[in-house]
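Before a colleague's protein record goes any further, I have to sign it off. Thanks in advance; the entry in question is below:
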Amino acid sequence: MLTPEILQAMQPLATSGLPKVRQLYLSLYQAIISGKLPLDFILPSSRTLAQQLSVGRNTVISVYNQLCDEGLLVSEGRRGTRICYRAQSSGLNNTTGSTPWPLSTRSADYRNARNRPDIFSPGQPDTTLFPRPAWRKALMAASHLPASQLGYQESSLPELQSSISRFLATYRSLHVQPNQIIITASTRQSLLLGAALFSDQGNTAWVESPGYSGAIDAFRHLGLDIVSCSIDQYGLVPAATETPPALIYTTPCFQYPHGMPLSAKRREQLLTLSREHGTVLFEDDYDSEFRDETQPRPALAADNSDARVLHAGTFSKLMFPAVRVAWLVVPENHAEHAHHCLRSLGGGHNTISQAAVAELLNNGSVARHLQNARHVYAHRRKVLLESLANCENVQAPTHHAGSLSMVLSLTKPRPISKLEGALSEHNIGAVPLERILWHQPQARRSTKIVIGLGNVDSLEIPECINLLDKAIGSV
């Protein structure tokens, strides 16, 4: 006979969002698994239990049948319905979760992403700039895709590949076949794909420092040995290693976060290294669209020699991060294998977003937005530099050709932990440069900070700079 406590626990609640049959199944299943209803216990008939719980008899019959199918109950005709499952431990559910799960050693290599305040947070574009009506109209057009393009796709959307091919030819002097363009969800995914295609575990990769932490995470995930390359006024300084690396990660148009382009001499050094030793150059075309003083040099991948260059870009800054559309240009003879590899890495093809981006590229919305965004960000840089002239604790940079990030020098070194605390207290997302010097031991003092221009309006910049100066001065 069921005890009053068990009957009360099995009573379906009108306030629950679940159907009565689902509530009864879950409560009876839990009572059996936990051992509250032991092996060989005879349950009431379906009619009796339905009366006790004030539910329809068919509800009870449905639950009994399902539990019989799952091997927890057995129907013995007139003898009743018997429990045929022996609980492993009656106290199992009371102890589940009491012991913390140990993390893997590998997980310690992944850096903790911190949520930073919006003011001057680097790497954040202004998501209000892209025209929402154009995005809605493009999504509406994308909703008419045929059913054949809404399933699991083995390749990228051809319309977007063609659109990006024309975009690269116009803005980056890079002429590639559409099928060379592999659509990914982000630059991080492109890094994983490029490294998986052209390097093996234990190979060496050169990476800029300071630089993009996503490259570090991707290469470590695939078991590469990472060697840091310092940065000077000409960009990446090739590392002095005995053997050439399998991969080199670089941001040649705008070094992140310093902003200088890779010099012509350094470009040729890297291209020569690739031609002579087969090193693959991973070109992250970071912020190339927002250069406002001079035309950017052609992409590294535009070099017509035998250098091996993977060209990566994203619409996260060009439009907004939520679009989740990026690309990687690979050799044409490896394009099909690259799609298979992307699927194995967990990548997929969001054809709705891809079709929307293709529509925006084709109808000129992206080009018009880019022209407007350049003007907006250039004006913000101008206002910011003027505002920095009155600061006591931070100095303006010596070069600022564009980009959404800027490195500012402090007038004197500050303790990093206290500096970060003061910035957070004043709701400022600026980052000490030493935090992205990934190859060095944790520094105690900071001499520079990295700020972003994407999330502060021009009218707010003078007040925000005063707040930044105040926060630094309090340390």
Observations:
- The chain has a mean pLDDT of 90.
